[in-house]
Amino acid sequence: MSEVPESAPTTDAAAPQGPERTGPSRRTVLRGVGIATVATAGVALTACAGRQPTPPVDYGSTPPAGTVEIPKADVPVGGGVLLQSPYVVTQPTSGDFKAFSKTCPHMGCMVTFVRGQSIVCACHGSEFAITDGHRTLGPATRGLTSVPVVVDGDNLKVG
Ligand code: FES
Fold first, then answer.
1. 32, part of any domain
2. In this predicted structure, what is the pLDDT of residue 62?
3. Quick one: which atom of ligand 1 is closest to the CA of 139?
């Protein structure tokens, strides 16, 4: 790498001297910015070297199926509730509990919410009755799959 001899004229040396020049020249500032940029890029490349991509992570939006227990009081009469497990539990009339798989039979989305007497899949608009899970609207060609639900005191065992 060549160095600039001390005696060689530079733009800084050729720049006007005197009271109007109080800070570093524009060229000096730009040279500093360039050096800083190259140094930053070098550090970034070094930090990335040798790293392997990580395998995909399954965040598991829906826990695996299995029996779950919930308080009966969590299920509104004339409506239902989506559980974190892959079930939706309804209570069409007081004390009459039903449970269904949340998997929409159309294309496999999880149903999205319970609205009034309907379990709704927002993916494509299919709706299912809270009474027995049959399809009431949308592109699904069949209803939700029923899941066993047992009343156990103040709780429900679902799945
Ligand atoms: S996946 Fe539910 S309506 Fe299409």
1. no
2. 53
3. 3
